[in-house]
Write the structure tokens for this entry.
Amino acid sequence: MNTNLFIAKTLWSGGAKKHPGGRNSFIAGISVAVSMIVMIVAIAVSDGFKTEIREKAAGFSGTIILSAPGIEVVNSKYPVDGNLSYRDKISSLEGVTGVQNYAYSSGIMKFGDEIQGIVLKGVDETYNWDFFKKSLREGRIPDYADSLSGKSILISSRLSSMLGIECGEKVQVYFVGESVKARAYMVAGIYDAQLEEIDKALVVANIDEVTRLNGWMPGEVSGIEIMTEDFGNTRELAAQIETIIEENQNDEESDIAVTTVEELYPHLFDWLTLLDFNVLIVLILMVIVAGFNMISGLLIILFEKISMIGLLKSLGMRDASIHRIFLYRAMMIVLRGIAAGNIIALILLTLQHQYGFITLDPANYFVTQVPVHIDWLKLAILNIASAVMITLILYIPSVFIAGVEPDKSLRVQ
């Protein structure tokens, strides 16, 4: 093994300046580096989109939703009990970070001469405001623990733009049922989450106000939102919650349906699934391109060293040992290319994360800039898998080495 390494170093000691093979090695290394950059960036951007959109969808509705069965999650007709007997058991599940009530009521907001249909979402003083704090653009988050803030609401920037509403202004909202109810609210803050189909009509208000509008009894709500640490075990948690409901529900409690955020917003998550498929295609293509560029570079080197191959064969060295020599050299090129690709890709991703110089239209992509999320485990797996796949592809040139005849190759000068 040490002899083979010594021969390999001797064969290429001249570098790119002394023979064309060095130049071909450099080009092959560049190909590997570019392929790694494309793959790392593709995975980081895909994960960035998934992280951003999942957080936004869950920020509006929770990761798992408990509501009346057979009814839309956004409903103001069929309430459920917000103080379920098994609520504490759900809260104690591993991965659950919060359980909070919500209530919906539909209405029409009027400001000046402009009107717009809205959905009023009622929350209480225990509500987790982290998502709306992150999305807040103007004003403040209402404090529903303070009785003076009972008429304060939070509206989206799109609704603000459509109606020309500013923070601190009062708006009229009309609720049409058996009779028309009019309520005045003060806009405490304006948020912008870039999910136009969801946030343009969503107005956050005090849950007591919404339940009174719906004519519900105290404790009756539209549903219960369950917040989780991550999205990796959403379906497993949903199955555990269904089991808890089946085992603990009493006759006095209403039936409860369990809905995940993926089921609530299928169009968003179908788009993410398609994005994953596209990334997979990119990974396959990049590995193939890098591998076959390495093959072409190695074959050129083999052609240039054909007389050396013949000499080694005439001295009794086996084909496998000769191939190992060239494979060592090729792997040096591959590893340098992988290292360079990682460094450049991480620099680009860091700059994008810090400064967001590549922007997007939120109406189409749900974010204002290309999001990035680096999963170090995925990065390690990608590097190892790429090195292994390219190494396997590099065994193809061994067919050429086996076909070299020493007596003929030694005549080549």
